[in-house]
Design a protein that fits this description.
Layout (H helix, E strand, L loop, with lengths): L18 E7 L6 H9 L7 E7 L6 H11 L4 E5 L6 H10 L5 E6 L3 E2 L4 H11 L3 E12 L7 E2 L8 E2 L1 H5 L10 E3 L17 H9 L3 E14 L12 H18 L5 H21 L3 H19 L2
Parallel strand pairs: 1-2, 1-4, 2-3, 6-10
Antiparallel strand pairs: 4-9, 5-10, 6-7, 6-9, 8-10
Helix pairs in contact: 7-8, 8-9
Length: 303
C-alpha cells in the first residue's frame, strides 16, 4: 500500500515518519514530475514524507512541485527557496527539515524504478543497527544513448563496506542511498565550497556505522550535460582538483585517523593531475603537482 492510499495499520513508536524522502531540485522541469511520481508510488507499511528543496528555479520546476503538493498535501512538504542558495546549501537546509528516522536521497533529475525500494532499505536498517548507510545499484542513463544504459556498480561490489572503502572513492549513487537521520550535528563550512556534495555527506555518515549494499537495480541515474559533476566530465583537471580539495579537508575533519590512506590517494591524484598538465603543455603546473606528489610520498614513508 502507498502512504497516500492508507495509513499504516500499526502505529509508529513515535509521531515521526519512518522515512524522509529528500528531493533537491533546480531547473529540472523535464524530470521533476517523474522523480516525484517515483517517490509517491512507493509501497510501504509505514509512514513517510517527501521533503522537496526547490532552489528558486528559473524554469517551470517550482510550478510542477506546487501542482504535486496540491494533489498530495499529506505526503509532500515543499521548501520553496526565496533565492537560489546552491546545491550544497539546499541539501543541508532540506536535510535539516527531514523528520524521518531514515533519509532517502533523490535528486530531481533521477527517479526510482522499484516500488519496494523504501520498504527494502528501511527493513535493512531496522534489522541491522550496526549499519549507518544502505545503498543499491542504479542504471546509468546517458543523454548520449551510445554510451548506455549500463549498471552503476560492477558484479563484484562488496555487500559490506566501511568508511575506509569510501575514502578511496565514491561508489554510492546518490539516488540509491538511505541513511540514519541525525548522525551528524553540524556540517563544516568548507563543505559548501566543494564541487560535489553527496560523497562528503556519505563519509560524514559512514563515521557512525557500516555501509550495506543491495545488489538490485532500483533507480535510474541520469547523466546529462546539465548535471553538476557531469559538467566537468570533459575536463579531468577540474575533476582532479576538486577531488584533491575534498581529501585535504577530510584529513583534518577526520582528525587524521585515516591519514595514511588519504595521503596515498592524494599522491595518486597529484600524479594523475601532473600527467594531465603535461599532456596539455602546462609544464610549470605539472612540476608543481609532481612536487606535491613527492611530498605526499615522503609523509607516507615517515608515517
Amino acid at each position: 500500500m502507498s502512504k497516500h492510499d492508507m495509513r499504516p495499520s500499526k502505529p509508529q513508536a513515535d509521531d515521526r515518519p519512518k522515512v524522509s524522502v529528500l528531493i533537491i531540485t533546480y531547473n529540472h522541469e523535464e524530470f521533476i514530475a517523474q522523480a516525484l511520481e517515483s517517490a509517491i508510488n512507493q509501497d510501504v507499511d509505514f509512514d513517510y514524507e517527501i521533503v522537496v528543496g526547490e532552489d528558486c528555479s528559473t524554469d517551470s520546476t517550482r510550478r510542477t512541485v506546487v501542482e504535486y503538493l496540491e494533489k498530495y498535501p499529506e505526503l509532500i512538504r515543499p521548501l520553496l527557496r526565496d533565492e537560489n542558495v546552491g546545491m550544497h546549501r539546499n541539501l543541508e537546509m532540506t536535510l535539516r527539515e527531514c523528520n524521518g528516522k531514515y533519509v532517502a536521497l533523490l535528486e530531481g533529475d533521477d527517479y526510482w524504478t522499484c516500488p519496494d525500494k523504501l520498504q527494502k532499505q528501511a527493513g535493512f536498517l531496522d534489522e541491522n543497527p550496526e549499519f549507518a548507510i544502505v545503498f543499491h545499484n542504479a542504471m546509468l542513463m546517458y543523454d548520449d544513448e551510445r554510451l548506455g544504459p549500463k549498471p552503476h556498480r560492477p558484479d563484484d561490489q562488496k555487500e559490506v563496506s566501511t568508511i575506509e572503502d569510501l575514502l578511496k572513492g565514491n561508489y554510492i549513487p546518490t539516488c540509491s542511498v538511505m541513511f540514519r537521520n541525525k548522525l551528524i550535528d553540524t556540517i563544516p563550512d568548507w563543505y559548501y565550497t566543494l564541487a560535489m556534495g553527496d560523497w562528503p555527506l556519505h563519509i560524514f555518515n559512514a563515521q557512525h556505522g557500516k555501509i550495506g549494499y543491495m545488489d538490485e537495480v532500483m533507480a535510474d541515474h541520469r547523466i546529462h550535460s546539465d548535471g553538476a559533476w557531469t559538467a566537468q566530465r570533459n575536463d579531468r583537471k577540474l575533476q582532479l582538483k576538486a577531488l584533491i580539495e575534498v581529501y585535504e579537508h577530510l584529513n583534518g575533519y577526520l582528525e587524521f585517523r585515516y591519514e595514511g590512506l588519504i595521503r596515498s590517494v592524494l599522491s595518486r591524484r597529484y600524479r594523475e593531475l601532473a600527467e594531465e598538465y603535461e599532456r596539455s603543455g602546462e609544464q610549470d603546473l605539472a612540476e608543481i603537482c609532481a612536487g606535491s606528489c613527492a611530498v605526499e610520498n615522503i609523509l607516507i614513508e615517515n608515517g
